[in-house]
Amino acid sequence: MMLCKQMNMFAESLIAVDGSRFSAVNNRDRNYTKAKVQRRIDAINKSLDRYLSQLDSFDRKDEAIPDVKTKHIHKQLDSLKRQMAEVKAIEAVIDLAPGKQISLTDPDARAMSTNAPSSGTVGYNVQTAVDTKHHLIVAHDVSMEMGDRSMLTRMSLQAREATGLKKLKVLADRGYFKMEEIKATVDQGITPYVPKSLTSSNRKHGKFDRGDFIYIEADDEYKCPANRRLPKRTKTMDAGKVMYRYWSKECGECALKSKCTTGKERRVTRWEHGKVIEDHERRMTNNPTMMQLRKQTVEHPFGTIKSWMGMAHFKTKRLRNVSSEMSLYVLAYNMKRMINIIGVKPLIKAIETA
Prior knowledge:
By secondary structure, the protein is an alpha+beta fold. The chain folds into 3 domains: 2-25 and 108-197 and 284-353, Nucleotidyltransferase, domain 5 (2-Layer Sandwich), CATH 3.30.420.10; 28-103; 210-274, no CATH class. It is 42% helix and 21% strand. The protein is built from 9 helices and 13 strands. Strands 1, 4, 5, 6, 7 and 8 form a 6-stranded mixed β-sheet that branches. Helix 2 packs antiparallel against helix 3 (67-93) and helix 4 packs parallel to helix 5 (179-187). The longest helix is centred in the first third of the chain and has 27 residues, at 34-60.
């Protein structure tokens, strides 16, 4: 990255951030969560009951049972009892494990969901920050985080440090949207572009959604679709955030109530730093092409690196070693990109004079 900075490769201030799940050296069968432990215990108990039932059935019969059959059953029972002891040992300590998961081959690997439906992988969360001009990976991170919502500020700061850019714009998909992260990134002087998560189904059901209520900053009130005001009523705490709630006492007689709420009145919640989020949403509306730019920037590096890995996984175990392995992949990727951009001889010359 120092060489790229010296060659002024990061003149543009746009960085795209994305995350992907990379498989670890740990089969899914050797990863346990509390639910998986319980399912395994239930399955073993079911098998034990089946074999014990067969032995009871043999005892009730007058005919002779071949020794090979009874020996096989006792062998299976011994195996199941050993498996039960192993699972019980895991159950006893799983609440103390990070993320309440235990992986037997690579202790740091975690079961993580992927974009494919009803699928997942046991591995690591790999994050990259890629410049939108040359598609160079300016920063990367490997973690045990299950999702991306807490990664925006961390990756933005790493990208700024790596590029040396004071004014930085960071693009990310809606999986990174978290109000606290948006504010933290803005507070660091970095401009985020992250679409808001779609959590309400009101629009789908023909009802007004949150965006139909306009905040009147001068009066600290909301204006509803019926052009009535919703004054601030209460202050609450929600997951450590100070939230204010607004509603009108006139909802019961409103002609639009059926399109607004099924309750007594429609209540609108606002975070104490709601202006930061509103400015962010306005910025997203005014820059509709940012998400397309993000997509065409960040997907290429991950696709390339995973094609090098094939269907395989990380070769090393434990977070520290996997992070080093990923650094080598990133170095190789950036070297190939630089060769494609400026050529072999100019790159060698730049390295020699750096």
